[in-house]
């Protein structure tokens, strides 16, 4: 089963943007996300609508952060992406009149709700500043040079 990595990809590029001086083009972000620049623009539009990023057109333009990373949480970004499904599993719905299916779905539904509540709570407790600090901690432990753009073939 294929996992949805959009949230991870967007967090990834937001941290790249935080390390970059000036705007970053959709083409550069697309390389980091392993996708098409059109997809990047569509995804970033939701973040722009919430005031997390801004875009500048023309030569020297691109995307840049528009907010303080210490105020932006994983949950904020998740919500800006349209709240994609958190769980890859779900209930069987082929026989809604079946009492066995109803019992199974009720138990699973409660567990799914509890898991989503816990996950969203954790998302709300983690800021992008914390992710950035973790990146910088890893960078400081590294013994050799590290070029963020070269990692993605930019």
UniProtKB/TrEMBL annotation:
GO terms for cellular component: cytosol. Gene3D superfamilies: Winged helix-like DNA-binding domain superfamily/Winged helix DNA-binding domain. GO terms for molecular function: DNA-binding transcription factor activity. It comes from the Bacteria. This is Rrf2 family transcriptional regulator. InterPro entries: Tscrpt_reg_Rrf2, WH-like_DNA-bd_sf, WH_DNA-bd_sf. Pfam families: Rrf2.
């Amino acid at each position: 089963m294929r996992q949805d990595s959009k949230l991870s990809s967007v967090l990834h590029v937001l941290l790249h943007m935080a390390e970059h001086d000036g705007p970053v083009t959709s083409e550069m972000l697309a390389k980091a996300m392993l996708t098409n620049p059109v997809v990047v623009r569509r995804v970033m539009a939701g973040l722009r609508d919430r005031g997390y990023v801004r875009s500048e057109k023309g030569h020297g333009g691109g995307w840049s952060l528009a907010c303080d990373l210490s105020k932006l949480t994983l949950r904020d970004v998740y919500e800006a992406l349209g709240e994609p499904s958190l769980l890859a599993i779900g209930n069987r719905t082929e026989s809604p009149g079946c009492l066995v299916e109803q019992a199974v779905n009720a138990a699973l539904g409660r567990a799914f709700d509890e898991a989503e509540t816990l996950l969203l709570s954790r998302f709300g407790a983690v800021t992008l500043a914390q992710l950035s600090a973790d990146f910088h901690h890893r960078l400081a432990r590294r013994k050799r040079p590290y070029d963020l753009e070269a990692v993605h073939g930019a």
